[in-house]
Amino acid sequence: MYIRARDLVRFKGSVELILRTPQQCKLVSAGIARAARAGWHGPTALVLRGCELGEDGAMQLSDLLYKCPRLAILDLQGAYIGPTGAGFVAKRLSVMTDLTSLKLSYNELEATGVSRLTGHLGSRLTLLDLNNNDIGPAGSTRIAHSLVSCPLLTHLSVADNCLGSRGLAPLIELVAGATRLEYFDASENELSCEAISALCRRMQEREGMRLSLSLSRAISSSLVHFKVADNLIRDLGCTYLATVLPSLVVLKTLDLRMNYITHVCMYIRTYVSHPN
Q: Is 46-269 in CATH node 3.30.470.20?
């Protein structure tokens, strides 16, 4: 693979680079460097989905990211960079001020890797995908702290991360008080009905504050898609959810599949569409 500078410079708009192997990172990096000397400002999207970079590949990626300051989309799903590789990538995130979408599912980050990455998230981030990284409650706490500096976030996915009820707790304020967050996925995390109860109580408190101050619906919850499939919510958790659904005025999808639910699910359907 060889990238000619004159081929890259002629692109005036957005450019998306899709790489298939770790070796291509080094080759593309050299091509971008040549193009930069000729006046090109770098790609706006970099996709390495399923590339399986590993730690060594993440080091090469770090050099490539240094040459992509205008990057808006970074897709590393299935790159398996691990906690060490996350450190290499994190060094470059702070200079990518235009980054709006960061997809990091299936990277074996664990809490350590997430801590390294989320400490460098920019204020323009709108999408963060951290599915299947075994981050646990410690990683969830770090995410919650970091996202305070991401006021434009609309999409957060933390499915299959061994969160448990303790792991949902740090994210409750983010979800309950959401005025921009539209998509939240915490499926496959062993969330209990008690965890859902805590979330619903906070939602009710927020709704009570809104009503007492005579605030408009415009600043109520912005959730459109709420996914908590394959957990331990059960019938009792559904009754808690039913109490707050009327206040979720823009909610379109509530995913409760595989939660040991019986007839209570019929009560849920009176408020919101339910996936098949």
A: no
